[in-house]
Structures are given as C-alpha cells and as structure tokens.
Amino acid sequence: MFETLSARLTEALRKITGRGVLRPEDVDAGLREVRLALLEADVNFKVVKEFVERVRARLAGVEIAPGLTAPQTVVKAVHDELVELLGGNSAGLRFAPTPPTVLMLVGLQGSGKTTTAVKLALQARREQHRPLVVGLDLRRPAAAEQLRIMAEREGVPFYSGAGAVEAIATSALQEAARLGADTVILDTAGRQHVDEELMGELKRLKAAVTVTEDGDARGGAALSLRVATGQTIRFAGTGERPQDLEVFQAERQASRVLGMGDVLTLIERAEQTVDKKAAVEIERRLRSGQLTFDDFLTQLRQLRSMGSLEGLLDMLPGGGKLKAQVAGADTERQARQMEAIILSMTARERARPDLIDGARKRRIAKGSGTQPADVNRLLKARDAMQKMAKQMGRSSSRQRGFAGFPRLFE
C-alpha cells in the first residue's frame, strides 16, 4: 500500500508549481492533487477528507520559511500531517517485565501470520532475546509444518502438538522454560472469514496464557486501518524473507512515502549486516584498481543481505526515479546470475579478471548456465565500478564511499 501511495503522492506534489507566496489557489490546487493521490491509493474517503482539511489548517496563514519555496511548504505540511496520521510512533517489541513475553498473532487466513511469526522471532533475537515459535494452526493442512521448516532454517526453536490449542500453548510455555526461551510467539489459525468458532478458539487461548501483546497481521490500507481501529502500527514488512521486518517509525516512513528517502535506516541496516573490515578492505582495493571478483562477490552478498534493491532505493533521497528505471526487472534473479557466473570462474580468474578471454568466457557461461554475453556484462560492470571508484578517489578520498554510495563507516 505504501508503494502505491508513495508513487501517487510524489507525482501529485511534483505538479505543484512554485512562487514566493503561498496563495489560497496554490493551496487548493496542491491539496486537490493530494486528495486524488490518496483516493487512488485506496485510502478511505473519510480519512482522506479529514487528512486534507488538517493539512489545509496547517497552511492557513502560514508564512514561507526562509530558504523554502511554496511547493516545499506544502510538502512539509503534508509530511508533518502524514507523520501524525501514521501514529507518530517508533515503538518496536515490548517485552514483559517478567519472562516469558507472549505474542499472539491473529488474522484471516493468508494474511501472513506464519511468515510474520518468524520475522518477529528474528527481531526478538536481534534485541538479545531468545524466541520460541509455536504452531497453533491445526486446521490448515501443513501449516505447523510450514512454520517448523521456516523456523529451523533460521535456527529458531519450534513447538507444536495435537489437541486443544490452549493446552498446546500451556505446554509451549513449559517448553520455553526448559529451553531458556524468554519470548513465545503464537501462530494461530485463520479463516477465510471471521466466525464464532474461530473467535471462541482465540478467546480460550487468550484466557489460558497471559498474552503480553496481540498482533494483527492484516495488510492493506494501513492508514485507514490505523484511523478505524486506533491501533498503533508497530512493524513494517519490507519483503518476503524472514529478515525483512523493521520497526515502524512514522517520521521515517512518511519521508519514504514522499520520496525524501530514509538514510538513517539505510545506515542502521548497513551497520547490522555489513562486515565493516571487509567493506574497508574492498574499498581500498577498489580505489587502487585491484578489485577482484572475490571482492565483487563479497560486496554483492553484503548488498543482498541488506534487503531488496527496490527497498534500498526507497531509502535514498530521490530513489523513486531510480526505482522506476528498474521496475519490472527481476533484480534478485540477476543477482543470483552474477553470483553463479563468479562461482564458475577459477580462483585465478577471480583474482585476475584480465585473464578471461573468449574461450574462458564460453566455459564460464556454460558452467553457470548463462550466455557469454552475460559474462561480458559482468566484466564490464566490474570495470566500470573500478573506474568510477578510482576517479572518486582522486577527487575526494574522504567525502564519498565506494561504488557511489555515501561513506557509511568512519
């Protein structure tokens, strides 16, 4: 939903022409575009009406601040009101004063509860807690097995059983104590629609265990849901992988929606996932013109560990324009293809790319299931990266980072 809203609002605000004075007709024109953008992004019409009126009130009688234009003043008002609408929060998981913390996920079938359970487990582990996920969806075939496989893949303890869900949950708390787990995440059953049987099961479950928090895994029109339910948005899924979950921070999300980027989150994610020593060493070799394909592979894997390319572009100011250029491209498939090509090279070829002639290109292509043209593109990409880094190193060795990104580590 945020991707659609971001595209619509960015385009709407781009249409606002600027003057030194913010006239009523300029405000009306700008808010008309904002209203259409929100409606086209499936935000409830009552929410849209209230949002636009609050932005209008922010702009009533306002003087344009020094250094800002009229359009920028409108964008600032929209940004500030969007932060309020999103809840103005930056809260993540709240843990019980006395363990265990019990999180219960509820929602309709297909709303993403199982994946979210593992995502929350990894989030708890990043915060130095010990999670246990519990499969309580005994109605959907293989649901508990799906959770077990996902949890084992990430090294997260799993528990399930047979019988009444409240009895399984009680046993799960005992298992958590045995394992030393202090965070228990309950993945409950869903339905195609809410019914009395489902609600009765959830009520019995909540009565049987002391639940610290309930999580609603519904997706969709987050703005409308927040206003309608009064609930706080706590996390945002950024992709399909178990690692693709981040604490929802309203101000940062509002900046992303309006195309302003979110460099703070980008830096934090890099600090969590990138090997600092490896990055510094690769940068040194890159600037000196000695980038090997082993370095290239390390850099590629570190970039992939930070999330999808589209998600990273959202965090760069103006990244929406770059994102539009790669729209429709399977960037994950291309990354896997590059990795396969590099792994099909010999150790000597990875260290000395200049050795790769026509015959070697054909052998590498055959070994990686690609075409010689694909190998050529990768070689050219490596050469271009190295050339750009050397130029940047000559012009400013301290102001920029390798591969055209800002320096993240000082």
Strand order of the largest sheet: 3-2-4-1-5
Number of helices: 19
Structural class: alpha/beta
Q: Rounded to an integer, what's the Rg over CA atoms?
A: 25 Å
Strand content: 5-15%
Structural description of this entry:
- It contains 19 helices and 7 strands.
- The chain is flat, with a radius of gyration of 25 Å.
- It has 410 residues and is an alpha/beta fold.
- Mean pLDDT is 77; it is low at 395-410.
- Strands 3-2-4-1-5 form a 5-stranded parallel sheet, sandwiched between helices.
- 57% of the residues lie in helices and 7% in strands.
- Helix 2 (24-40) packs antiparallel against helix 3 and helix 18 (358-368) crosses helix 19.
Quick description:
This protein has helices at 2-14, 24-40, 45-59, 70-85, 113-126, 143-153, 165-179, 196-208, 222-229, 250-257, 263-273, 276-287, 293-305, 309-314, 319-325, 331-343, 347-351, 358-368, 372-395; strands at residues 101-106, 131-135, 158-159, 183-187, 213-216, 235-237, 245-247. With 410 residues, the chain is an alpha/beta fold.
Q: How are the SSEs ordered, and which strands pair?
A:
Blueprint: H1 2-14, H2 24-40, H3 45-59, H4 70-85, E1 101-106, H5 113-126, E2 131-135, H6 143-153, E3 158-159, H7 165-179, E4 183-187, H8 196-208, E5 213-216, H9 222-229, E6 235-237, E7 245-247, H10 250-257, H11 263-273, H12 276-287, H13 293-305, H14 309-314, H15 319-325, H16 331-343, H17 347-351, H18 358-368, H19 372-395
Parallel strand pairs: 1-4, 1-5, 2-3, 2-4
Antiparallel strand pairs: 6-7
Helix pairs in contact: 1-2, 2-3, 3-4, 4-10, 5-6, 7-8, 13-16, 16-18, 18-19
